[in-house]
Amino acid sequence: MPDAPPVRLTRPPYERMTYIHEQLQLDKHPNCTSLAAHFEVSPKTIQRDIEFMRDRWNLPIEYDEPRHGYYYAQPVENLPLVTMTEGELVALLVAQKAVEQYAGTAFEAPLTNAFAKLTAQLDGPVTVALGAARHVFSFKAAGPARADLELFRRLSQAVLETREIGFDYRGLGDAKPARRRIQPWHLCCVDNQWYLIGNDNDRAAKRTFALPRITRVELSARTFPRPARFSIREHLGGSFGIIAGNGDFRVRLRFDSWAAQLVRERFWHDSQELAERRDGGLELTLELDSLAEVERWVLSWGEHVEVLAPKELRRRIGEVAQRLAAAHADR
């Protein structure tokens, strides 16, 4: 896929306001036209900067008609600085590192540019701290999904404009892709993988599609009414990940003392209940509508977990364990 086109960034508002402040201090009587030419922006942009400085920062800026420029009606020493609490700064640092996990993908350039715009108005000391965050915080994602920025852009457009779309989709186990016609409702990211949720016109049913399996997207001119009752929280409320089902399962898992500490350290599901055991182990209870994803999760714990309920999940884990044992037996 060709590289994403570079995004041109104008000078940040705080930089422009600092320059305007300096010109006013020097009694240069700058105006919107001269400042717009200096920064290569529109006079309306400069006008908004000046109005912000006057109305939000309460700076005594007035306009001198004979000299056709602005001036300070009273002495002003310094501009107000952007202040942040320690918690806000840490949150910003973590956000920056979260963006870095998309390094090397099609999302890297637009995310980096967006973050630069968000932090453009911060004062110098905070900006230095942000740069130092590279050595303080980090993220590591196992098996991040392949990203196609143009695909994401077109699907986003379809969702926002409620336009029907057609695309080729190759489901798991399919020999070749099949054409699908969809009313796209929602884009969500689960475990570093993006999914599209919508109504499949041919099947007259709600479906979920993994973006890496979508190709040849075509936007239709036909629009559709966005379903008022659709809620992503309710749709995924009973799922362990992205797969929503129609079942009703009370899953009970017993972890040994080694795994129990790891289970305690994370939040797994809205319905989770934890019960401590005298031997240092832990019982985890979940209310789910599908067993597909929790089955794979249970298998990842190996001998450190036992399925107590439901019987269906216990049976499925046992069958997989037998096949694994047979496949890995010495020959």
In short:
The protein has 331 residues and is of the alpha+beta class. 36% of the residues lie in helices and 23% in strands. It has 4 domains: 13-72, Arc Repressor Mutant, subunit A; 86-135, no CATH class; 149-232, SH3 type barrels, CATH 2.30.30; 249-327.
**Taking all residues together, what is the mean pLDDT?**
84
Structural class: alpha+beta
CATH level 1 name of the largest domain: Mainly Beta
| Computed Rg | 28 Å
What percentage of residues falls in helices of 4 or more residues?
25-40%
User: Major beta sheet, specifics?
Assistant: 5 strands, antiparallel
Uncertain runs are: 1-10, 123-133
Number of domains: 4
The CATH architecture designation of the largest domain is Roll
The helix/strand order is HHHEEHHHHEEEEEHEHEEHEH
Distance between the termini: 45 Å
Give a structural overview.
- With 331 residues, the chain is an alpha+beta fold.
- The longest helix has 17 residues, at 311-327.
- Helices cover 36% and strands 23% of the residues.
- The protein contains eleven helices and eleven strands.
